[in-house]
Amino acid sequence: MTTFTIHEPPPRKNEETASPVRFAFVRDGFYFWAFLLGPVWMLYHRLWLVLLMYLAGTTAIQVALWALGVSGLVKFTVAVLIAVLVGFEAGSLRRWSLRRWTNRGIVVAYNREAAEHRFFDRWSGSLAPAYAPIEPPAPPSARAPTSDQDIIGLFPEPQPRP
Question: Which of 42, 76, 112, 127 would disulfide-bridge 47, Cβ 3.0–4.6 Å?
């Protein structure tokens, strides 16, 4: 099962509330296309600031490696590690870019379509809550210690000596 976070955009000028069609469902996990084609993936998802930071960071790292005179294999390994990091953090990068949107919750489902169905069914109030309210436990009854020695710990609770 996959975890999705749901983000509601701010309403447009002629809207009172945002249209549910514009909601963003961001999957948590590894993004293969972000790993393989990081800058293209960022452009596709309109992550302009993330793309600028990525380009500046990778350029600075590659220039520093060149200045240190490291081999091509080390430069390639660093580039692959950065790509792996982008693949793992792609969902977080998307959520960061949606920071001005309202976070509407988390849904666990097999795929995005199932997540949309679960969220909008629950959001519209057509389903009962997924959990039952839990009543607080009753306070423990005071028990007398079994001996005259002091008891260390939480159970059983010692009573004051007369």
Answer: 42
